[in-house]
Amino acid sequence: MARQTPRGGQLRAKRDPQTPIVLAGAVAGFLAVALVWQHAAQLFARVTLPADDTASRLAYAAHWLILPGLTLSAGIVGAGRRSFIADAIDGTRMPASHSLEINLRYNKITLEQTVLAAITWGAMAPVLARDELVLIAVMASLFAFGCIAFWIGYLSNPRARAFGMVLTALPTLAAYVWLAWHAQGA
């Protein structure tokens, strides 16, 4: 049932003309993740896997956390550089500088995604088959590339961040689903 306007006309939901940008980015991100996942063995053939003991597996997962750490560090440095701009130095939650505001949002989202990734990679490392540990390297690489794409997309147009968000979040989400499924079978 359509809602009526005060003059008796019907209200229609306005469609955001930039919605296709979001959808295109999300679909492209999903396809990129699927393609990399499908060809992980070939793309990451040179990755050295750890010894087959729990400590080595956890150290391997921690080693790959350097990539999310570097993306977060880049964001912190970027925010530090931007915070010394005269209109951004006030220290408020909503800075006058648009690029600083985006940078701070990037840092928040990257921190959240890094924590989620650290939890999943640490939980997966002891239970994956040894040859499947390369998936942690795959997730780390997608994470780093996704964060860069997210940041660039966000700076150019907030709706253009979908590609990077999917590259960063989808592997972690898939890992959580796999961990839940694995816990049910254990």
What would you say this structure looks like, in words?
This protein has seven helices and no strands. It is mostly helical and 186 residues long. The chain has one domain: Four Helix Bundle (Hemerythrin (Met), subunit A) (Up-down Bundle). Helix 1 packs across helix 7 (162-185). The chain is globular. The N and C termini lie far apart (49 Å).
Topology of this protein?
Blueprint lengths: L18 H20 L1 H4 L10 H11 L1 H17 L15 H27 L9 H23 L5 H24 L1
What key phrases describe this protein's structure?
single chain, 186 residues, mainly alpha, Four Helix Bundle (Hemerythrin (Met), subunit A), 7 helices, 68% helix
Percent strand: under 5%
CATH-derived topology: Four Helix Bundle (Hemerythrin (Met), subunit A)
The radius of gyration over CA amounts to 20 Å
Overall domain count: 1
Largest sheet: none
Assign a percent range to the helix content. Answer: 55-70%
Q: What is the count of helical runs?
A: 7
Structural class: mainly alpha
- The N- to C-terminal Cα distance equals 49 Å
Query: What's the CATH first level?
Result: Mainly Alpha
Described by the principal axes of the CA atoms, the overall outline is: globular
Question: What series of H and E elements makes up the topology?
Answer: HHHHHHH
Low-confidence stretches: none
Give the name of the CATH superfamily.
Membrane associated eicosanoid/glutathione metabolism-like domain
Task: Report the count of strand segments.
Answer: 0
Round the mean pLDDT to the nearest integer and report it: 85
